[in-house]
Amino acid sequence: MNLNDVHRGIRKNKKRKRLGRGAGSGHGKTCGRGHKGQRSRAGYSVKATFEGGQMPLVRRIPKRGFNNRFASTVVIVNVGELEERFDDGAEVTPEALREKNLAKGRYDLLKVLGDGELTKKLRISAHRFSASAVEKIQKAGGEATVLPGKAPVVKNKQGS
After folding, report:
1. For residue 120, which of 88, 129, 148, 156 is within the disulfide window of CB 3.0 to 4.6 Å?
2. Is the dihedral of CA 131, 123, 92, 138 positive or negative?
3. For the chain, first and last CA: distance in Å?
4. Are the C-beta atoms of residues 18 and 25 closer than 8 Å to each other?
5. Residue 52 to residues 49, 67, 77: CA-CA distances in angstroms?
């Protein structure tokens, strides 16, 4: 290895390209824009998705159904998973769930569902609980605390 190999390709203070300063500069006349064509003109701009007239990828991919961009992201945790990961008498919070890798990534709401068995007495804090989860938590001697945040979705008994 040579000393010049270490610094090859490093340009800390690279000067900006000065365009239109004569033929001797290497960027005179057409200023690196070539001859004619769309990109040679002043005011050139194009959409990010434009692919030269080819059908853009964003339009080639099929889209199905309805995607609600304003919907809340809900992370679910089952009481069976809490049984496995937490000790008796532990306090289960969103932070504790993140440490145990049960609630990963970004989310708006945390919901506890009733799948599995629960024998340990746990104090669980979440935004939402299913009816079966609350029943199992209370049966085991624990408590379910609803965290403030977005209002829980309540459906009426007619099914709408």
Report:
1. 88
2. negative
3. 73
4. yes
5. 9, 29, 47
**Neighbour-count burial for 28-57, b at 16+ CB within 10 Å, e otherwise:** eeeeeeeeeeeeeeeeeeeeeeeeeeeeee
The token duo for 31 is 């200023």
**Residue written as token pair 């004569």:** 22
The CA-CA-CA angle for residues 139, 92, 147, to 5°, reads: 90
Helix (H/G/I), strand (E/B), else coil: 23: helix
Residue type, 9: G
**What is the pLDDT tens value at each position of the chain, 160 positions in all?**
787 777 777 778 888 899 999 999 999 999 999 999 989 999 999 999 999 999 999 999 999 999 899 999 999 999 999 999 999 999 999 999 999 999 999 999 999 999 999 999 999 999 999 999 999 999 999 999 999 876 555 555 555 4
Report how far Cα 39 is from the mean position of its chain's Cα atoms: 35
Residue 37, SS3?
coil
The CATH class that applies to domain 74-146 reads: alpha beta
